[in-house]
Each structure stands twice: as C-alpha cells, then as structure tokens.
Amino acid sequence: MSRTDTGRLRIIEFKKILEHPFGVGQSTTAVSRSVLIECEGSWGEAAPSQMYGETIESVMAVLSKPLPGFPDGDEDPGAYLDEAAAGELGRNRSALAALDMLLYDRWARAKGQPLWRLLGVERENLPVSSFTIGIDDIETMLGRIQTAGTRSPVLKIKLGRHPDQDAETMRAIRSAAPDKVLRVDANQGWSLAQAERLIPAMAELGVEFVEQPLPRGAVDEMRRLKDISPLPLYLDEDCHTAGQIPSLASMAHGVNVKLVKSGGIREAVRIVEAARSHGLGLMIGCMVETSAGITAAAHIGPLFDHIDLDGHVLIANDPFEGCGWEGGKLMLGDSPGLGVTLRPGVSL
Fold first, then answer.
1. How many other C-beta atoms are found inside a 10 Å radius of the C-beta of residue 7?
2. Secondary structure of residue 140 in the 3-state scheme
3. Which stretch of DSSP H or E encloses residue 64?
4. CA-CA distance, 132 to 314, in Å (whole number)?
5. Is the whole-model pTM more than 0.85?
6. Is residue 302 within 8 Å of residue 331, measured between CB atoms?
7. How confident is the model at residue 106 (pLDDT cuts 50, 70, 90)?
8. What is the DSSP letter of 70?
9. Looking at residue 341, what is its pLDDT?
10. What is d(CA 323, CA 209) in angstroms, rounded to the nearest whole number?
11. What's the CA gap between 348 and 335, in Å, rounded?
C-alpha cells in the first residue's frame, strides 16, 4: 500500500485480496488494486481497467495534479464535476468517479442528509443484488454455487472463455440451483454464430438476460442479434456515457452502468435519464471494489431495474463499512453522506 498527499487529497493504492480466484473473460486473478482518495473523512474509490486505457499509475498521476476550484463541502459539486469531466479527468473515468464519490459524500454530509435523499431517490426501491460466480472448471463453479447458497437468490454466471462448453456449464448450474434467478455475462466472449446458438439454450434454462455477448464495437452484429434473441441483451463494455445511449438503443435491450466507467454518480444519473427515454432496461454493476465504491453506487441503485453490486463481498480485506450485504440486500441508512466509514481498527 502506497500513499500520496496532495494538499487536498490523500491518495492511497490499496491491494484487495479476493476470497477466491476470480475468472472473467480470459484472465483469472486473486488480487486486485484500487486507488482510494480521502479528504476530511470523505472517501472515493477508483478501480481502473486497462481495457478502458487506465492503470493504477495513471489514476494516481491524474489525481495528484492540482485541483483548481475544489468546491467547499456544502457546495453542490455538479458544476465542478462537469468542468472536471471536460478536462483530463474526463479521459480517466475511474479517477473522475473517485472524485465524484468523495465530493458527493462531502456535500451530503455538510447538508446533514444521506445522499440518496438529497438526490430524490426512494431507497425502498433498491433491488436485490446478484452474486457473481466467476469462470472456473465446472466442479469449482458448482462448489461456489453451493457455498453461495444464502448469499443471494440471484446469481450472475460468468461465461465466454470456453464457448463450446458454456451450454453444458449452464445446464449443470441450473440443475444445481433450480430455484435461483440466473443471469449470464459472456464478457464479449462469443462470436455472432456462437451467440445465435447459445442464447436460445440459455432461454430454455430460464436465464433472465444475457450481458455483453459479443465484443464491444460489434454494432451490426449486435443489431442482428437483438432482432432474433429470445432473451433481453444488456451492453456493458459498450456503454460509458449518456451520449452513447441513442446508438446503443438499436443494439440491445438494456445497458449496464458502472460508476468507474461513467465517471461517477453525476454521469450515471444522466445515463439513467437517457436510457429511460429510449426504452432501455437498466442495470448498475461494479468492478471488484471495496464498500466505498459499492456504497456510492447503491445510493442510486433504486433508479435501476437490476443491480450487480457484490464487489465488496468478493474480497477478504474490505477496509470499510457501508451498505453491507444481507442475502443480496444492500442497506441504505440515514447517516449523512454515503455512510462509508473505516472498519474499527483499520488505518489507511
């Protein structure tokens, strides 16, 4: 863990230890890194991805630069964040997201209100979160499903590494979890021909929807697939900002929004508004994140049809307390701000 103090922000590189090796796409990891930022007791988190042109080092570098016009705690940070998004931070979306979380927490704390209330969100509408089963051999995946039995009634199954085995894998999972709601995330792993074959098989198994079946940027192929798919299709890697929504509406039935892709709460709410106007379904997801990032996303979770906010329960060393997790349910309290605090005895 490394630390940098910039005057306004304290910047910390934090190593997250996963409870189990986590397989996505063509890679499996047991350790993941975040950049945490802190100012006057407010926290933000960046979980960058090289897929989107960011690294831990690039995030720390951009956040270490001067932040002119840094708003006071009781000042609505919206205008400042818009200006920041137009500059270098807009090209480093997870860094922008970390700053967005921190500033919204400071603002809501100064107002003495939980953020969900200031944003006009109705917390009782927060959906149950899915719990993710990463890619592994089938025996290991089935074992994880058994141990995850009480974690959530909804399971998100990562596929796409071995498309020729995916139908067999899902049949075994459905047999092992007959009462679970199942969702599939192919993580760009299928070709059009494979998706045309596999999605009907997923439908026969009662899968609710399929996320990112084709590689990002496969516009024509996604349009064709949408026209014939028996299941709703959601885009993740293709969806970053609200300006993309009109073109994405012809490619899928819904989008997966992540704060680290959009640049934080402000842009995520804009995506919600744009998606609703185009008749798209909405899911809010996450990377492997601590309770800082997950809780920030949970505050706007009630605006979405589905949530996949389990990143904090995938790690063994979460340094924060926040929205918690009880059988897939996240809890939004009445504490001012985001309600994120360091766990007792933890020092960063």
1. 10
2. helix
3. none
4. 9
5. yes
6. no
7. very high
8. P
9. 98
10. 26
11. 22
In the block, tokens 């700053």 appear at 99
The answer, yes or no, to whether residue 7 has pLDDT greater than 70, is no
6 pLDDT above the threshold of 60: no
Q: What is the CA radius of gyration of the chain?
A: 19
Residue at token pair 């990463």: 134
Q: Which domains does the chain have, with CATH numbers?
A: 2-113 (3.30.390.10), 117-342 (3.20.20.120)
Element (H, E) at 126: none
Which amino acid type is present at position 15? K
Q: In sequence order, which ranges of 177-254 are alpha helices (DSSP H)? A: 192-204, 219-228, 245-248
Single out the residue of 158, 155, 122 nearest to residue 138, CA to CA: 158
Other CB atoms within 10 A of residue 216 CB: 15
Q: Residue 21 corresponds to which amino acid? A: P
Contact 169, 137 (CB under 8 A): no
Q: Report the pLDDT averaged over residues 131-149.
A: 93
Indicate the SS3 state at residue 197.
Answer: helix
Structure tokens at 12: 């910390």
* Count of positions (residues) in the chain: 348
| Helix, strand, or coil (residue 251) | coil
* 212, 236 Cβ separation under 8 angstroms: yes
Of the chain, the percentage scoring pLDDT greater than 90 comes to: 90
Going by the DSSP 8-state scheme, the letter that residue 304 receives in this structure is S
Enumerate the β-bridge partners of residue 307. Answer: 129, 284
CA distance 85 to 81: 6
